[in-house]
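Team,

Forwarding the record for the chain on the shared tracking sheet. I've put the sequence and predicted structure together so nobody has to dig through attachments.
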Amino acid sequence: MRSFISYASSKLFSSRTLTRAMSQSTSIPKKQIRVRDHGYDDYMEIEKKVRKVIKFQDLILSQPNNMISISRLDSLSHRIGFKQLEAGRFILKFPHVFDVFEHPVQRILYCRLSRKAVAQIEQENEALQRQIPDAVTRLRKLLMLSNTGRVRLEHVRIARKQFGLPDDFEHSVILKHPQFFRLFDADETRNKYIEMVEKDSSLGVCEIERQREIEYRHKGVDAEDIRFSFIVNFPPGFKIGKYYKIAMWKWQRLPYWSPYEDVSGYDLRSLEAQKRMEKRAVAMIHELLTLTVEKKMTLERIAHFRMIMNLPKKLKDFLLQHQGIFYISTRGNHGKLHTVFLREAYKKGEMVEPNELYLARRKLGELVLVSPRKARMRQELTSYRGHGFEDDMKSAGRYVEDDEFEVKENGELGDESNSETDFSCDENESCTTE
């Protein structure tokens, strides 16, 4: 009798564990190991250098005549996180961004921005001003994503660069458009908030919904397959098992409420409603990233909007469940900074659909990547062209003029091949001089 009971209990335990395993295997696991994607990490390594360069640029532009002595730069560099004697070594690494020269009167070394760096800043400022109408639309959509219709002004100010807003956006964007925005001070928190004046239903269409419509119209995919689906692109090396595929298939067809839809009146206590809210949170972060200029934002700044957008508390673990949609890079600040990328917006480290402001900002990254050795070689070639090459051309010109004078005196013209200068060159040689 005891053996029968033990056998029955063992069968019951095995059936329970099997059922539990099956139920867990056909749903996306709550905790997953982050799989690195070197394309995004390499992008952040460049971004790390660019952020330091921008700090030095702001420091130099804040000085009189937009230049500063190296000794003073070294003494002020501790404000931007540099140790003593590190500033000079740092700016010498980027000769296409910083110009080190000797002051003609004081006879000491000074630093200023190079012409290419100044041109890049002007190009970025012009692109920023041209896209202000788009920034107004992005800010309106951001307010519509909030469950209260308002966002704290300080949180928008911290992320103004990501949203493509100018530094004076409080005056140039908010106060200049009173038909869209309203500023007020909250009595309970003593913080300043931005509030939308009126909700525009025409702006309540998510970017993923627009992409689904394009996919359906151009490729003719079954409407039921893409009605609630997301573009999924897993990183290289991500292990996808049989049951994980089943879980993704079920999750892609799970209905959810739009991020722009008001869910305050819905009953969210059921398990089905909780699953829909979890998928709505994915759509919310997806839409938030599409509102940024570079389709990326730090995890810490996304957390600023957690309460007003009904996002989960453990945001990092939640994003790691959907590594085919988002990518979290820890590069850039010794692992302390977490940058969330929208995977579908990038391919091989570049944006699929770049905008004007993104391209202007990438110009600074291109200047940073130029090695000092190449810069010195270009400088030597430029000086050679400016001095030695011109002297050679002048002597060659005098030689030709003397030959022509002798021909005129003798009255003989000679052969046509000898009288004309031959400027022909091979296919592999350059015929132009700069």
